[in-house]
Prior knowledge:
- The chain is of the alpha/beta class.
- The chain has helices at 26-39, 58-73, 85-93, 106-111; strands at 2-9, 12-21, 46-56, 78-81, 101-103.
- It starts with a strand and ends with a helix.
- GO terms for molecular function: anti-sigma factor antagonist activity.
Amino acid sequence: MLHVADEHHGSTVVVRVEGEVDLSTGPRLEQHLQHAVAGIRPPEPLVVDLSGVAFIGSCGLALLLRLHEAAENKGSSLHIVAGQRAVTRPVEVVGLTDTLRLYATVEDALAHAH
Length: 114
């Protein structure tokens, strides 16, 4: 099961994700996040809050990389809230900590938005 919702913090969009990101939920999440990336206004970042994610598979990590590239190509950035091991550990294991911008809280991600 996956729940996705958008919140607006000033001009920054925060997409909150709860549940598991795997092969069955990944396509729906990707569609939602690609739409969110299309709507951002550079230099504002897109903040994706994964603090409610209990599992993220390799398809979810690949999705985060694609979103990172899409945001950068648009002149923006992707800020990922990943304050728990279910997300940080897979990112560390595959060596993406230097590529993806991870933050412990939404507040931290928003503070680095400008």
